[in-house]
Amino acid sequence: MPPKVNLQKCDGCRAESEALCVQICPGDLMALDENNGKAYCRSARDCWDCMSCVKACPNGAIETRLPYQLGYYPAKLIPLVGSNKISWTVVDIHGKVERFTFKNRND
Amino acid sequence: MAAKLPAKLEEVGEVRLETDILIIGAGNAGCYAAIEAKRRRPDLRVTLMEKAHIDRSGCLASGMDAINTYIKKNETVENLVRWSRAQAGGLLREDLTITMAELLNQAIEEWEEWGLPIKKDENGEYLARGRWDIAIQGSEMKVILAEKVREYGCEVLNRVVATNYLLDGDRVIGAMGFGVRDGKFYIIKAGATIVATGGAAGLYKPYTNDGVDSHHQIWYCPFNVGTGYAMGIRAGAEMTTFEMRWCAVRTKDFNGPIDTISVGYKAPMINAKGEKILAKRYAHMGGDASPRFVRANAPMEEWLAGRGPCYVDTRHMTPEQVKTLKIDYLNERPSFVLFLAARGQDITREPIEVYGSDPYIVGGHTASGYWIDVKRATTLPGLFACGDVAGGVPNKFVGGCAAEGMLAARGAIEYLGSLADRGQVDESLVAAEKARVYAPAIRQVREGDGVIPREMEERLQRLMDEYAGGVHQFYRMNRERLEYALKHLAILKDQTRYLVAHDLHELMEAHEIIDRLDVAEVLVHHLLFREETRWPGWQNRVDFPERDDTRFDCFVNSRRNPQTGEIEVFTRPYEQIIPGDRYRP
Amino acid sequence: MPPKIGVYLCHCYGEIGKILDLEKLSQQAGKWRGVAASIHYPALCSADGLEIIAEDVRQGRVDRVVVGACSPAVHRDTFLRLARQAGLNEHFLERCNLREQCTRAHRDQPALAMAKARNLLKMAVGRLSPAESFEPVSSSTSRSVLVVGGGIAGLTAAENLARAGVNVTLVEKSPFLGGKVARLHRYYPRFCSPRCGLEVLMARLLATGRVTVHTLTEVTGVRGTAGNFMVELLKQPRYVKDACTGCGACLEVCPVEVAPSAALPPGRQRAIEGPGLFPYPLNYAVNRVFCRGKSCSRCVEVCPAGAIDLDQEEDRLSIGVDAIILAAGWEPYDAGRINNYGYGRLPGVITSMDLEVLARPDGPTGGQLIRPHDKKPVRRVAFIQCAGSRDKQHLAYCSSVCCAATLKQIDYVRAVAPEAGIFVFYMDIRTPGNLEELYRRTREEHGAVFIRGNPYAVEWDPGAEELVVTADDTLSGSRVAVRAELVVLATGMVPCAVPAFERLEKDTTGFITGHLPCSPMEVRRAGIYVAGCAQEPMDVSTSVKSALAAAAECLATIQNQSVVVPPVVERHKCDRCGRCVEECPYGACSFDTGGYPAVNPLACRGCGICQGGCPLRCIYLPGFSSREMAGLIEAVDTGSMDEQPCVLAFLCANDAYPALDLAGTRGTSYGANILAVRVPCAGAVNAGWINDALLSGIDGVLVVGCRTTECHYGRGTSLAESRVNNLRETLQRMLVEPERVQVLTAGIEDGQSLVAAIKRFVKQLQELGPNPFKE
């Protein structure tokens, strides 16, 4: 399901030729709202949850939410991307926090 | 900002390019093909045409946690063929599997050198996760590959959707398509063309479908819609073994992979009564090592018999194992970890429920796809195929698709060397294709009324699910249902002229449904033809429940006549190279 | 080839060696991956010490060098020279600060200092292992400069550049060169004619043969950056061709009289005008605002040279230049807007610039002191200072030259009217330096009466046909009314508008400034320099100085090698998003033909703001690649801090880093758990490094920049703040305390307060406990 965009943090990648989430989404699902210049997902149903946009957003403005039909509120999964490693923080519906940090590039 | 839709055909801008090697689809196989072509022949212009963005397109968008085929020390190419042959119910192209297997390790080792972290054991060898599997941390593996493609100097056209080949007679001299961002019509002429568009998802209705949010909660990349198959079908290429569908046991509701759990952590599949399904009921097929179609079918059979739900039993796992397991998922499908959190599930106490997925056509897992030779040449001169779109080699997976990309590049280079001329572009075909591509947009402007792609997609998926053995029908089908499906597919194909598209994204969706219809039609013909049940789970003919080696120990192939649209289905014999019992590893 | 790193540790004559066990450190370092040699020596900066390193490099024993000694802010040249002499690429030499930020700061905690030294050395080695070598980039040899404005500043800059061999294009919007200075009667301090100085300047300029002058021309567009500007010019028709001999026959027949200003009657000036006393160019020009056009054509008929062509049309041209000097000058503040002084309404109320015209022998009164409209002799003159200046209703600022200009004009009055009464209304007389002598002379020798008070009003007494100026004399406390035939308003200076440069950064008064203390002449778009009154109000001699300074800075940019090695772009990683192009404060970063960012070495000032914002970390300054920074950060042993939280501090090299050095030197102790990384600017810190630090188990990260208004690169600190704020919000969602990442600011002398702030941060971290990412 849909990437949820934090409108306070999203800056539409400013004057860039194409916002990074718009550029990267394998399903061509992210677009910029012409009214406010912020990113949105044009079709929640078509998202594959690959989280490419979440990882690409330079402002950390996008969060993937699971479709409610499949899982309950308010679980979270948030990455922090380093140079050659990534860390994921997951918070389950009971508030339990787990963190996973691992290398994702050799260089 | 994306361009606006054209209101008239004359408004459509054109981009004309000439290249040496055109690769359609910049996924794993396409990228390897590009790199191999460019490093063998740096003088050649190598162009990738990609409907999304190369950094995250194709099946590896969110990453991968294992390479399922790597030939370890003490293993051989022959052993891999034997194992793969048995897994596929005895039916694969041994010549293709051997040539693929010979390059497997090179592809994977190179990937590591370019930056992909592969886990090591205490001896510094790749960490094994089963007989052929090794564990990786591949969340960025596609980005790493894309960087390499650019470093080698390949040309990448992102956001350009291929729609049809450019033909000179039956010879492929490039491809046409349109830009999802610029709205322009692309006519790319090439010396040789490699198709690497992946398999087909979205032919069947997923059970996770809830209309609003979770339609794409499926296992296979939903943006792979079978365009490469469809273009080949329309051009008259020979296709093989579509009836060997890929239906897999996946985590229930999330449709996540389970090899990570069942192979990586030796978690047995159990039914509602706690019985180990494979050991108890499929010992004769190899128990836990049963062929994949058996494993796909087993929990569905249990469910039908009133012993569902079924699980992979994770309750023996230690907290450390669970942590590693979650890291594996974070490398492949991170949102599965979110799913567990959203269920508040502790898998050391509650096992993970499993269920069958919707069926896919995926040449990387089964043998469906283009009929090719060892050089990865299709039956259309000038066209090569690799990866999920190429048939004959089940169980090639990530490493095999990469290896096959390299083989296709070598084949294409050799073909280029043999060419006397580069062929002639028939402008009338170009004009006709341009009109076909933009028809939904122009109809939207002129008529304003019609069928939106999503409606047609849902109609197709419902039809296939109910009449061509979808997951809601426990993959079962018979002649009558398949004929019903064909009848309605014909209506749907005729209805495509009513498709309307409101923007370039929807124009892409319109062509996705058009392509899916062409693939579905061939698929149903294949399912009808094979009057036996060779791979219960993948292909269950309830009217022919047994395997029939006298008639069907062979490949079922098809070819659509480009002039008449008739689909001719025929057989090709099996050729055994590696001796031994084809049904045992 | 794996790197062969040499680790050289300096005792600094005991200052380091007494606190740290260098023998032990050097043994430990010798075992690290990539380290080929590790020694310690009494003084590495001595000739002997340097030779040891150089010899190891020359013999191939090491190919990268870590110098563990004093701060990188000192002995910079010493070690750079060493690198050059030994044939070591300067980017393969890494300085490790074991003195200012280790032994000096932690002299009372030798064990912790030892742990910190080990960390700092490991970080240096970790960074150096994947480092790449870079060569400085040389600029092109084509050299051309556009000078906008043909006044004294523009001419001075043009003359200097042309003499230095630069091809200069000079554009002037009016028909003649010389600007305001050419219209002055005299200028101080020597009271000579400005034409004299202008003539000399012009002669030297023309003698270079390197100048192309376009009068009646304005800049309509500017694209590109230093070394590569494209400038669009619009040239208005002059209607007088070069055949003009300047005979003046046209002037005799032109029927349209033109007044020099709102307060002055027409004199000899007509709709066709000549060059006046500074004849560049010599040919006349028709002012089409006043000219009646072809229906009149008397001038056309009378011109013996047939030089007048009323059909001329405007011309557009574009030129390429390497740099631009903006010397567009000033206009007097519109005195008509000061209602109570009656300018343009009351006869005899004029501005100082009007008085310059009146004083000139070619002015409407022929230089005599008579009232222009009725020729009445002037017996009393009143000057009103700060007319419209230092006044929020008008100009809030002081134009700095008006006081001295009035004193100069009193000299004009005295010269022609020894008996005239002279009154000056003022708020403060500002005559810095030797101008005080002028003030003294005016008071004591010329007998001018100074009245401290801002007049309420200037009124006309119709009976006496005189002007009456009323004011409160704030010294005597009484109201005064002064009668005068002439009232001179000392109006202030307003910068000339140059629409093509409207987007340049300006100060609150509308003048275009560079970074005033650091690079005053270069504006925030590299390659554009500002000279003269476009920058701030100034007198003629200051204008000349500013023009010389602008020319010098401009020359340094266009002629020499670039001062920095510009950032590298890893094209295969770049997705062409354009954030670097957008955020570069100097416009140095632009898209190349492939759509990738390309950095213009002439325009780059090395701030690294591009690398700070790059989402893919594929643009970086040498030493700051993601591999080097990951190597540096991963080398930190977070467990060596004696239970103290581990802090990584990215310190701006301009202020914060030397401030911390200074604190250590003064013996201000702070925790040995603070590991500083020197960065060119707070804006150069990429959020990915902070992520790396947190993921490596570092408990807290500081980014310390200059105070927001003092950032040497303009937006560095504020960009760092917005990036860190984004990260902090993400951390909050991840249930990681956002306080673990903070941006601080510090000036170069704020070592004490920086240390105090760091201590507060450490205390906060102690309360928070260990980094939640720590496994």
Automatic annotation (TrEMBL), chain A:
Organism: Desulfofundulus salinus
SUPFAM superfamilies named in the record: 4Fe-4S ferredoxins
The protein's name in its UniProt record: 4Fe-4S ferredoxin
Keyword terms: Iron, Iron-sulfur, Metal-binding
One example GO MF annotation: metal ion binding
Source organism, top-level taxon: Bacteria
Short name of one Pfam family: Fer4_7
Record-annotated 4Fe-4S ferredoxin-type domain positions: 1-35, 37-67
